[in-house]
Amino acid sequence: MTLQSLRRWNLAGGVITTLTLLGAIFWAFPLYWAVVTTFKFEQDVVREGIDWLPIRFTVEAYYNALFNTKLGLWYLNSLLTSLAITVLVLISSAAAGYAISQLNFPGRRALWWIILASFMVPIPALIINHFVLMADLGLLNTLTAVVLPQLIAPVTVMIYKQFFDSVPKDFREAALMDGASQWQLLFRLYLPMNWGITTALAIITFIGAWNNFLWPFLAITTEDKMNVTVGITQVTDAFGVKYARQLSSAVLAGLPVAVVYLLFQRRVTQAIMLTAGIKG
């Protein structure tokens, strides 16, 4: 490679790096502005001009969000529903993926095609059906109503099936010869061989359940049963909008997901790559 070519590559790399940096700044600026605003007094938030940092530092907005709202209860509701969704989705998806991959039963191929077809239907298109069904079952305004419709996870089933298909048949035959049941095969052989995938799917499922807003917003009307993403919409004031208070509630609502992502970034990336591989 000639010196001129190297210079061209360096110039192209510099341009790409600069554009990437500008894109990152453009993306992160609203988050930065929201966090900075939470440490301002309300009168400083609405004053003229732009203050890149708080003129007077305060944690009043966070104090109000933590002690003058039901944020703790909303956290608990979100934690319960998100954990329930994560556990049930993983168990049902692993069982369905194992059955379709390893068992022969009538309607196996039809079931697989139904799962593939359901993957092509966007979940928001089913909102009305979910609402009518939960109303008919008398489950509206309960945490059960929040959980049940979110158990539809065809992508997770497809990922498990693909992995189970790749497991050598010799392992299964050896376990069957030792008298293992199908449940033992699933939980003692197949799942332990892919704890990495299961962990990645668990993290991304939990994050998705925690961040979900539309369905919990429709299914729950009682403030005590709201999850945190819906509950923070109730942080209002009789004397007008309080930007710092509302933004502090939003920051606290998103904080657990941000912590989970930072701690398990590699697993989240793995899950996204697995999902993208299925969609591809």
Taken as a percent bin, the fraction of beta residues is under 5%
What structural category arises from helix and sheet content? Answer: mainly alpha
Shape: globular
Full CATH superfamily name of the largest domain: MetI-like
Number of strands: 0
What's the short version?
With 280 residues, the chain is mostly helical.
Q: What key attributes describe this structure?
A:
MetI-like fold, 15 helices, 280 residues, mainly alpha
Description:
By secondary structure, the protein is mostly helical. The protein has 15 helices and no strands. The longest helix has 36 residues, at 3-38. The chain is 72% helix and 0% strand. The protein starts with a helix and ends with a helix. It has two domains: 3-58; 62-279, MetI-like (MetI-like fold), CATH 1.10.3720.
Helices, strands, pairings?
Layout (H helix, E strand, L loop, with lengths): L2 H36 L3 H4 L14 H8 L3 H32 L5 H12 L7 H10 L6 H5 L6 H13 L2 H9 L4 H9 L4 H17 L2 H6 L8 H4 L11 H21 L1 H15 L1
Helix pairs in contact: 1-14, 3-14, 4-8, 4-11, 5-8, 11-14, 11-15
